Amino acid sequence: MASTTANGAPITNGTTPTTNGTSTNTNGIPAPAHPLTWFITGTSSGFGYRIALYALLRGDNVLATARSLPKLQKLVDEVASLHDPTAKDRLRVFRLDLGDSAEVMKEVVDEAAKVWGRIDVLVNNAGMSSSLLYWKLVMLIQFSLNAGWGWPGLIEEAGLPTIQKIMDDNVMGPVKLTFAITPYMRAQKSGTIVTFGSRSAWRAELPGIGSYAMVKAAIHAFSENLSVELAPFNIRTLLVEPGSFRTEGIYSHGWNTNNEIPEYEPLRTKARAIHASIPGNERGDPNKAANAIIDVVRGEGVAKGREWPNYLVLGSDAELAIRNKCNVMFNVLDKWGDVTRGVSFD
């Protein structure tokens, strides 16, 4: 059986198949030799919804998941209305919650893998688990009916139970799912794992995003490690680091007011005002971002002729956040270099 690249294209000596079946001499990302099968979490809205839709429009297959099947009806209906009559036949939907056990996730993945016999692309996109809705009810009871749960909020005010649940579901959730899918990719000796990070991991100093930044920083490290440990099996990783986009993301959730600490009032007031000013003013177009991600995975469009990036920064605000943090660290190294290098054995 011929070896294939991570997106299913045959490995050749410096050549890449073109869309008409010929080859060109290039070291760019190879185009897939067959329709890709995407397993995408969080497809009821946001980036997941758009990636699923546009992957279908490219002729690929999509295994779409959300924490409840009714939430996927919008996607199903839109796909059914597309001019491509084959699109609805290339979509399957599954219930999957980030708070599910590893055993439940494996059952879903095993069922999904039977549909087209392979999984070429995993998109770890989903954010909040419905298990957190349980915690919202707990907090409502514990801190009175005037309390509210949300992603944004000062980290100490979030409280340990909420932070623990956020980390369990939104770090361990993608980890469990990835471990359920990698055996299939290792067996087929190809695959791509797309994981959503965030610029927030690069600017955790911003008050109110501590819990979110913690999750994204952990996911960032997870993706980087996988890029090395899965490379021998021809499995690629892509860490997507978006800025602010007009999706149903972090800013669509209310501010966490479960455990307000009086001393934080001035900082909280300022942070909430900044948070409230963002929705509707995001510069990022989620449709363009979704198509850029698909271009990279498929080696076409904006990615044609380019090498695999491992990281995909989306949005000028994300670029600025990353450059600023790099400059901060370079500045620290410049000013404290003597201390940094002065702790070795003589």
From TrEMBL:
Top-level taxonomic group: Eukaryota
Renumbered residue ranges of the record's region Disordered: 1-28
Key words of the record: Oxidoreductase
Pfam family, one: adh_short
Gene Ontology molecular function terms on file: oxidoreductase activity
Entry-linked SUPFAM superfamilies: NAD(P)-binding Rossmann-fold domains
Ranges of biased composition (kind: Low complexity): 12-28
Family in the record: Belongs to the short-chain dehydrogenases/reductases (SDR) family.
Name of this protein: NAD(P)-binding protein
